[in-house]
Design a protein that fits this description.
This protein has about 425 residues and is an alpha/beta fold. It has three domains: about 180 residues, FAD/NAD(P)-binding domain (3-Layer(bba) Sandwich); about 130 residues, FAD/NAD(P)-binding domain (3-Layer(bba) Sandwich); about 80 residues, FAD/NAD-linked reductase, C-terminal dimerisation domain (Enolase-like, domain 1), CATH 3.30.390. About 25% of the residues lie in helices and about 25% in strands. It binds flavin-adenine dinucleotide (FAD).
């Protein structure tokens, strides 16, 4: 260990993103009695990620507007924000508490520890993937890299038909770029949404001029003599020219700190409904954490990567660190995605639904999909139908359902009147 060691009687939060910030804020709101240190590996104070693939990419939102709080806020709340500092290791004491070590050799002791390290974009393992114009979309720096290149870009290949790939494709198309989106499986949003929604987006993006290729693998990225990517080679040998390639194929989580802590890991750091890891005194929240969500049909712990999850789970983690066991994580998940003029709002978890009701005509680009399981309403996906979404968000926590499914399909019947 190099450098000095600072004694600390409080909470250290590793990862200064949406979850880490919320945890710090809630600790202070709850009157946490020790120091609160929020440590982030990025050079920036906590900022919002959702606009990165939306308004920020088109330049419609400034850097300042991305920031979640002002520098004064941290001072006023007594939150010690340390940016540009990667936590390289954690050294738990056998008797409780411990210390974290930073990349620059500093060591900070903790009484309570929170892991909010999020996730990073998965890289694609094919030849040419490390070319400088093969980009991912996770951080402000990633978005800045793409923005800096945009003026010289005519053709873009997006690899991956999940939300980030689709949002990026929509933005780039709206800027007049030629966009080819390549998805390995035979539908869009396969991991996170119902087939109807995937079909809708396929039609909607094609209508807007995105060349979507489903069931198409990629085998290599061709580079020129300068090392820049120039084309994406598909599994069938076709070569698609590209001035820039965007890879949006999901995220990976780093098990490093969990391993050092001896915390259970199952694709993410495993937590319970109190956001507790399996190590006493250590909580985790947000994209880095997985848990057995009672709303999910799977027995495996999972994570809905979203702002809602990061914020709500962080609040629970803060309550736990303050000794308040009455707070459990049982929020209904919700999510949004903006693609061109299409606003998707989702609430609940649709996985495991046995009946779906289409409310409105997808071709009109204003409709909702209602998901039911055993006659119980479990989730909604709304495109440009905020009224439906709001009615469903109110119904889900109280277990309200709809029995008249014909009425539910009729746009003339307000959804809020149908929930019983
Ligand atoms: P992160 O935001 O990833 O923050 C974790 C932070 O921890 C990072 O800054 C990381 O650098 C830092 N860190 C990691 N390891 C260490 C370490 N060892 N030491 C120090 N620091 C470390 N959600 C929605 O609900 N709606 C949307 O429309 C939407 N759009 C999105 C668009 C994009 C482009 C992206 C990337 C995400 C989007 N999301 C959206 C998801 C949402 O932003 C994330 O779920 C949320 O930011 C997760 O917050 P987090 O704090 O858990 O993780």
């Amino acid at each position: 260990m190099g450098g000095g060691s600072s004694m600390h009687g409080g909470a250290v939060i590793v990862g200064a993103g949406q979850a880490g910030l919320q945890l710090a804020v809630d600790l202070r709101q709850r009157g946490y009695d020790g120091e609160v240190t929020l440590i982030g590996g990025e050079a920036h104070a906590p900022y919002q990620r959702p606009p990165l693939s939306k308004k920020y990419l088109v330049g419609a939102l400034s850097r300042d507007a991305l920031m979640l709080r002002t520098p004064e806020f941290y001072r006023a709340k007594g939150i010690d924000l340390v940016t540009g500092a990667q936590v390289t290791s954690v050294l738990p004491d056998p008797g409780g508490g411990g210390s974290v070590e930073l990349g620059d050799g500093r060591s900070i002791a903790y009484r309570d520890l929170a892991v909010t390290t999020g996730a990073r974009a998965r890289r694609i393992a094919i030849p040419g993937a490390d070319a400088p114009n093969v980009l991912v979309m996770r951080s402000m720096d990633d978005a800045d890299q793409l923005r800096a290149r945009l003026a010289d870009v005519t053709q873009v290949v997006v690899i991956g038909g999940g939300f980030i790939g689709l949002e990026s494709a929509a933005v780039l198309r709206s800027l007049g770029k030629q966009v080819v989106l390549v998805e390995a499986v035979d539908r869009l949003l396969a991991r996170v949404a119902a087939p109807e929604l995937g079909r809708f987006y396929l039609d909607a993006h094609r209508r807007r001029g995105v060349d979507v290729r489903l069931g198409t693998g990629v085998s290599a990225i061709e580079t020129d003599e300068s090392g820049d990517a120039r084309a994406v080679v598909l599994a069938d040998g076709e070569s698609i020219p590209a001035d820039v390639v965007i890879v949006g194929i999901g995220v990976v989580r780093d098990p490093h700190l969990a391993e050092q802590l001896g915390a259970r890991w199952d694709g993410g750091i495993v937590v319970d409904q109190h956001a507790r890891t399996t190590v006493p005194g250590v909580v985790a929240a947000g994209d880095c954490a997985v848990w057995r969500n009672p709303l999910s049909p799977s027995d495996r712990p999972s994570c809905v990567e979203s702002v809602q999850n990061a914020v709500d789970q962080a609040k629970v983690a803060a309550a736990t660190l303050c000794g308040d066991e009455s707070v459990v994580y049982d929020s209904v998940p919700w999510f949004w995605s903006d693609q061109d003029d299409l606003k998707l709002q989702m609430a609940g978890l649709c996985q495991g639904s046995d009946r779906r009701v289409l409310r409105g005509d997808p071709d009109s680009e204003g409709f909702s999909i209602l998901h039911f399981k055993n006659d119980r309403f479990i989730a909604i996906d709304s495109i440009n139908r905020p009224v439906d979404f709001m009615a469903a968000r109110r119904a889900l926590p109280v277990g309200a359902t709809i029995t008249d499914l014909d009425a539910a399909a009729d746009l003339a019947r307000p959804l809020k009147e149908l929930f019983a």
